[in-house]
Amino acid sequence: MKPSIVLYKKLPADLHQRLEQHFSIVEFEGITEENRTKVFNALQQAEGLIGSGGAVNKELLDHAPRLRGVSTISVGYDNFDVDELTRRDIPLMHTPTVLTETVADTVMALVLSTARRVVNVAERVKAGEWNSNIGADWFGVDVHHKTIGIIGMGRIGLAVAQRAHFGFNMPVLYNARSQHKAAEERFGAKKCELDELLAKSDFVCVLLPLTEQTFHTIGKEQLAKMKSSAILISAGRGPVIDEKALIAALKEGTIHAAGMDVFETEPLPKDSPLLSLPNVVALPHIGSATHETRYGMAACAVDNLIAALTGEIKENCVNPQVLKK
Ligand SMILES: NC(=O)C1=CN([C@@H]2O[C@H](COP(=O)(O)OP(=O)(O)OC[C@H]3O[C@@H](n4cnc5c(N)ncnc54)[C@H](O)[C@@H]3O)[C@@H](O)[C@H]2O)C=CC1
Ligand SMILES: O=C(O)C(=O)CO
């Protein structure tokens, strides 16, 4: 008999078939308040779990006594209780690398669209406001040769640094816990303290994962240290930025603008003040959302689960210490 797995995200047909060759699949559309009991029931027999979104915590794991492998269709894993998985010797697999370049493209889209006011200006054209030669009220600010500060110099940070350096001649600053030789040698990046990065950068680009340490890394105090002409780009996880403090800073002119792909609450509530600020570009968490990359992530996650349940993990394991036991 094939091992049973719970799948909680729709997959392309060929990938679904690949999973079916190995496993008997019980499928759900997400893990929600509504289907929670059904998911918990299915988990009683499940040896594998694959999907994205929703909390995979102790309560859920308590309903999954036979679980041997978990695969998320994402690189971020802040919604998983990794300690609890590790305590139970369950490998957690994720999808790094396959989405790096696509997310870096999204970050540059936010840099360009905030600086050049692409969304705002295009809306004005559609509204019929382009009636004569444009004046200064349509102008943006330059991107090329401006300083970009990257907080979270990992895979995506490095890909952003590459674009900024080679594409836009931007000096690159970064703040990190350790030195990144590749970024320094290839892109002339300079490591600096957070305060210095905030004070010197024209674009502050936050690409940190969400952890206990990174929660509200950027708050009122940090925003006050930025240039009033600076633009904040947030594409890691929403709670890394104190959104209330950011809204105040944008309203008061403490900083110039913000480009955001992630928010403290997603989907962004319809009454969020961010939606009525003209100096905000808000995207619906589309960092990796291209057809090619989302397919690549799903394929990677499927292969990851197969590897985890056949004992053949070679890469992409978040808690590799469970493999040594
Ligand atoms: N907007 C979107 O759609 C997407 C968002 N993401 C987010 O981006 C994050 C980063 O992805 P990758 O670059 O692939 O991960 P990564 O693990 O390669 O990079 C994260 C970097 O942050 C650094 N870091 C972690 N904690 C830190 C701290 N307390 N202080 C300073 N630096 C710290 C790490 O050392 C690492 O260099 C993901 O965890 C995910 O949350 C990822 C993909 C898509
Ligand atoms: O992979 C992730 O962590 C995302 O946020 C979506 O691609």
TrEMBL record:
The active site is at 237, 266, 285 (proton donor). Residues 108-287 form the D-isomer specific 2-hydroxyacid dehydrogenase NAD-binding domain. One of its GO terms (cellular component) is plasma membrane. It comes from the Bacteria. It catalyses: (R)-glycerate + NADP(+) = 3-hydroxypyruvate + NADPH + H(+); (R)-glycerate + NAD(+) = 3-hydroxypyruvate + NADH + H(+); glycolate + NADP(+) = glyoxylate + NADPH + H(+). It is an enzyme of class 1 (oxidoreductase). Residues 5-319 form the D-isomer specific 2-hydroxyacid dehydrogenase catalytic domain. Its EC number is 1.1.1.79, 1.1.1.81. Transmembrane segments: none annotated. Its main location: cytoplasm. The keyword Aminoacyl-tRNA synthetase does not apply. The keyword Oxidoreductase applies. It is found in: Cytoplasm. One of its GO terms (molecular function) is hydroxypyruvate reductase (NADPH) activity. Keywords: Cytoplasm, NAD, NADP, Oxidoreductase, Pyruvate. Catalyzes the NADPH-dependent reduction of glyoxylate and hydroxypyruvate into glycolate and glycerate, respectively. Belongs to the D-isomer specific 2-hydroxyacid dehydrogenase family. GhrB subfamily. PANTHER family: 2-HYDROXYACID DEHYDROGENASE-RELATED, GLYOXYLATE_HYDROXYPYRUVATE REDUCTASE B. Homodimer. This is Glyoxylate/hydroxypyruvate reductase B.
